[in-house]
From TrEMBL:
One of its GO terms (cellular component) is cytosol. The lineage of its organism: unclassified sequences, metagenomes, ecological metagenomes. InterPro entries: P-loop_NTPase, ParA/MinD_ATPase. It comes from marine sediment metagenome. GO terms for biological process: negative regulation of cell division. This is CobQ/CobB/MinD/ParA nucleotide binding domain-containing protein. One of its GO terms (molecular function) is ATP hydrolysis activity.
Length: 167
């Protein structure tokens, strides 16, 4: 195993029911070049060992344009239902169509929303309502996994995943 493959394996945290690969801090101002190159080279190899691979990126289009993967089964664009959120979601959708990436299904998940705002040509996967429990957990340094499974946000995310991962 090469040194960089070993580095990726060392960066994987094994947990109950899932493993987590966390990208580190940038090499310099805004630069994830080496990490993205490693991901691009080994994501296909790593993903063959898992039923699902979730890539959670920072907000914006940068990670998509860096093409950390070439094949995507389900691309979820998560945005808040504001004018800026809608414009950004539309731009990400258009970028995904232009890049040489195979995307089987693409859609939007409205975050902190009570209703689905329609966008031209985009599938709406669903809405995750504002949930004080999520904010409280974040303020206490906890993760989403510390939020009660009956919270409105947790229930909404589960429903969205069940509907879209089985189709």
């Amino acid at each position: 195993m090469r040194l960089f493959e070993y580095g990726i394996q060392q960066a994987i945290t094994e947990a109950d029911g899932f493993d987590l690969l966390t990208m580190g801090h940038p090499e310099g101002p805004g630069c994830y070049c080496a990490a993205n190159n490693l991901l691009r080279n080994f994501l296909d190899k790593l993903s063959s060992a898992y039923d699902f691979v979730v890539i959670d990126n920072e907000a914006g289009m940068e990670h998509l344009s860096r093409r950390t993967t070439n094949k995507v089964d389900l691309l979820c664009i998560v945005a808040e239902p504001t004018p800026l959120g809608a414009v950004t979601a539309q731009r990400i959708f258009e970028l995904a169509e232009q890049l040489p990436i195979s995307v089987k299904q693409i859609g939007i998940i409205w975050n902190k929303a009570n209703s689905s705002k329609k966008l031209d040509g985009m599938n709406i996967f669903g809405c995750v309502p504002y949930d004080q429990a999520v904010l409280d957990a974040s303020m206490q340094g906890e993760t989403i996994f510390d939020v009660e499974q009956n919270s409105s946000a947790f229930v909404a995310v589960r429903k969205i995943l069940e509907q879209n991962l089985t189709s």
